[in-house]
Amino acid sequence: MGITKTAGFTTQTTEMADVFKALGHPARLAIMEFLSKSTSCICGDIVDEIPLAQPTISRHLSELKKVGLIQGSIEGKNVCYCIDENRWNEVKQIVQNVSTQLNSLNKCC
Amino acid sequence: MGITKTAGFTTQTTEMADVFKALGHPARLAIMEFLSKSTSCICGDIVDEIPLAQPTISRHLSELKKVGLIQGSIEGKNVCYCIDENRWNEVKQIVQNVSTQLNSLNKCC
DNA sequence: TTCCCATATTGCAATATTAGAATATTGTTT
DNA sequence: AAACAATATTCTAATATTGCAATATGGGAA
After folding, report:
1. Yes or no: is domain A11-103 CATH 3.30.300.20?
2. pLDDT tier at A39, thresholds 50, 70, 90
């Protein structure tokens, strides 16, 4: 049905799944990596970096913003996008937890 | 168009975006967390754990398998699914790299 | 004000994803 | 072999996502 059933999952699971989903597109993942590396956070520089049209990138940015992965602030004529470290730390936490739990299990396969 | 443009992105970016996308669904994220925690890896136990019908879960499992996040091995009448640690480490690496790079930047916002 | 420049929004067509009923498959037990 | 148990596949509908042209918005410069 194209609609995701959320009943029966914790809010935390559903919310973090949305965050991972946002990372699950080459353009959005590339934007996150660009923002983590570059000293620039100007929207225009992202548009130059990513091989998609400006409206498309604008939409991807708004999706990253919707799930809280980035924040945008207006700088005169430009917009500066930055990674929200708190949100990113939540992602890191989930990934690390799985790793930790994996190590404490005896593998069966 | 519902189709994702991959031209212009590195293979690594595209491939890892697919991995994150696979994690971007409550059921699949819950499956990964279950597999990391539980000593059981039997498909039937996953079906009992996740509030979706068996065919739906089977499909989610096959998607996790497609991107290499889990492996399945037949154990008689059952199937045992386990997390592929190599793939998981790649996820962890990306997340950690972003964190590291973030810390070496002076934030602008 | 008028003209640019940077970014966001809208609208639409093409494609992808999701869920589960029905069914198929494969292995086990009797 | 027949009956059963566990899992996978197929099918279909509803819904979501993607990309971009066209357009809107809002700020700075002339």
Report:
1. no
2. confident
